Every structure is written in structure tokens, then in C-alpha cells.
């Protein structure tokens, strides 16, 4: 019973459809279900929002167009005109993280962005992708990225290892930031929600706090999707332009 009411119970991975391929556990879980639901909701939002393509847009078309313009301007400002080719991927990342965060706010759902294995996998794909882009474009000149121009050669033994460590830590910082914020927020919500019933008439105070914290979590859901996306753009900009 105590485990059931634990603030961390909401993050438990549950197998919905057991699948096993040659000893490899590929079961369909509640996390996978929410990822599929996120893709379906994002697709429905964009397709239904743009189906009329009216000259005077309605509410849903306006939101869909604003999302498109917001990310298009973000790519243009951080990466420049060369980033236009990568807009579909960056827009997909933003919408997937944003709707994943928001759907996780629905009671009894599951927040897959609160799992480090999910966020790290996304960050690793981005990190490997931008590194391959940089190697394809700059070839061996890519390694000059670890030695900024104008730095005295005597500083190289100290500076190059620092730059390499900083570069390799990018997927860690990108994934931990999203995972930690979503994990901490949902845990805090669960802890204070538990006081509402147990305190009886005095539960009004934690109830008000939960309402305010829910509003803050929605803001954080948007903010973390934005931070994840803008860091992706900055890494892409480094890959395309180096220093």
C-alpha cells in the first residue's frame, strides 16, 4: 500500500503487451503508449488545425501556424539560412517534447520525459547527428573546433582536453536538464496532493499550492521543450559553422 502511494510510483514502467525477440525484451509499455499517443495527438493537432487553411485563421489554425513560425524564427536566428534544411527535424523534436510534457500533466497518464533513458536517447541521437553533419561538411577541419582561433599554442595541452570534455558532455547536460525538471515537478505535485485528503479541512492550503504548482508545471513544460530545442539549434550551428 505504501509503495502504491509513493511519489515515485507514477514513474514505474509497466508492461502492457509482453514482447520478446530472441531474448531481447521489446515489450510495449506505458511509456511506449504515451509516446505513440503523443505522435497521434501532435499529428491530429497539425492536420486538423491546417485542414481548412483559411485566409482568416481560426483558433486551432492560429496555434498551429504560430508553432510553425516560432520554430522557424528560432532556427533562423540561431543557425541562419543553412538551418532551413533541418527545420522539419527540429520542429518535430519541439512538438514531441512539448506534447509529451503536457500529456504527462493529465492525471493517471505517464510522463516519458521524466525518464533519463528516454531523454538521453533523444539527446544522443541529436549529438551523434550534429557530429556526423560537422564531419561531413568540414571533414578533418572539424577537429579545429577543439582549438579556438587566436588561442596561444602553449594553451593547447590544457584547452583541448577541456573542450573535448565539454563537447562530450553535451548529451548528458541536454538530457539531464529535461529529465530532472519533469521528475522533480511531478514528484512535488504528488507529495503535496497527498496532504489534501490527510489534512481534512486544513487541506485547502496544499490544494491551493497544488493548483498553483500545476500552472507552474505547465509553464515549465513549455520552457523545457524550448530549452531542449534551442540547445539542439546551437549544437547544429556549431556543427555547420564551427567557430
Explain this structure to me?
It is built from seven helices and four strands; from the N terminus they run E-E-E-E-H-H-H-H-H-H-H. By secondary structure, the protein is mainly alpha-helical. The longest helix has 38 residues, at 204-241. The model has no long low-confidence stretch (mean pLDDT 91). It is 66% helix and 4% strand. A hairpin with a 2-residue loop joins strand 2 and strand 3 (24-25). The strands form two sheets. A two-stranded antiparallel sheet has the order 1-4. Strands 2-3 form a two-stranded antiparallel sheet.
Give a brief outline of the structure.
The chain is mostly helical and 243 residues long. It contains 7 helices and 4 strands.
Secondary-structure map:
Layout: E1 15-17, E2 20-21, E3 24-25, E4 28-29, H1 30-49, H2 59-79, H3 87-103, H4 116-138, H5 156-168, H6 170-198, H7 204-241
Antiparallel strand pairs: 1-4, 2-3
Strand order of the largest sheet: 1-4
Tally of separate helices: 7
Low-confidence stretches: none
Main sheet summary: 2 strands, antiparallel
- Percent of sequence in beta strands: under 5%
Q: Pairing-aware structural class of the strands and helices?
A: mainly alpha
Distance between the termini: 56 Å
Strand element count: 4
